[in-house]
Amino acid sequence: MSKNKAGNNIKGFIYVFLFSISWAIDAIIAKLAYKKGADPFVFSYQTLLLASFLMIGYTFILKNKSSLKLTKKDIPLMIFLGFLANGVGTAFEQVGLKLSFATNYGFIIKTATFFVVIFAFLILKEKISFKKMILLFCLLLGSYFISTKGESLIPALGDIFIISAALCFALVAVLSKKIINRNSAEFLSFFRLFSGGFTLFTISLILGKNILNTLYFFYMLIDSVFRFLLILFLYKTIEIKSASYMTMMSMMFSVFVAVFSYFIFGETMNLVQILGAIMIIGSVVLIQKSEI
Questions:
Q1: When you count CB atoms within 10 A of the terminal residue's CB, does the N or C end of the chain come out lower?
Q2: Is-contact 236 12, C-beta < 8 A?
């Protein structure tokens, strides 16, 4: 293995680890805000827009401008990707969660990983090997065990919306990989955050939400930092690694959420969930050592 490739493997792992843990903290903070009574649409648009401003500050104050890349013809696509993922995808996600069960949501949203692998094969021509499919199965089964505690899912109407959200997230990840070689991760991150936030702002207006609600400003402020970090590290990962690697390795998110929930909310983990965590951790180790 060349030094450059070995370096990318290490950087890729660091980026996807930071992405996964930022995503988990973001989910925990949002859950705390929702428990306090925050509206999901208003809270999400506020955190996304503030995170987009943080991205501007990071990009133009801290980042070396000479290393930035932006292809103007890709800007409409980047805006669309933000609209599709953080706008439409988040809307589907919230409607699905309202019309389904938390256990259903916890597992079904993870099917985005399966969809990324399929879309990456169709659009990016990433290979699908027997080993990759076995590891993908283990990851999804581990996620199922953590989300459901081994219990059967009860089908609900909202599941259709959750699957639609997973499809949106997966398609955006793959299309982002297609153009990231000619656009810096920072620009992709900004357009995704801002476009998604503006879309949710518009939806909140249409639904008659209190768009100026600042009761949960502290949660929104903290969450915007981790929303900024998770999107940035997501794109930093796919900048140097495959879309399949990013989505499969990010299943660490499920383990982090389970651990944080144990300490913060006092949620216990049974043996089935512990088995699921072991399956995910074991798969992540094998993925890191292989060429996925």
A1: N
A2: no
CA distance linking residue 148 with residue 255, whole number of Å = 13
- pTM for the full predicted model: 0.93
Q: Which residue has the tokens 């490739």?
A: 5
For the chain, the domains span 3-289
Give 2's pLDDT tier (boundaries 50, 70, 90).
Answer: low
Take residue 47 and report the two structure tokens written for it: 């955190």
Cα separation, 27 vs 86, in Å, equals 14
Tell me the two tokens of residue 147.
């989300």
DSSP 59: I
C-alpha distances in Å from residue 16, one per residue of 22, 105, 161, 229, 235 = 10, 23, 27, 11, 9
Residue 11 vs residues 18, 225, 240, 291: alpha-carbon distances, Å:
11, 21, 8, 15
Are 110 and 220 spatial neighbours (Cβ–Cβ below 8 Å)? no
Q: Over the range 209-227, which residues count as b (16 or more CB within 10 Å of their CB) and which as e?
A: bebebeebeebbebbbbbb
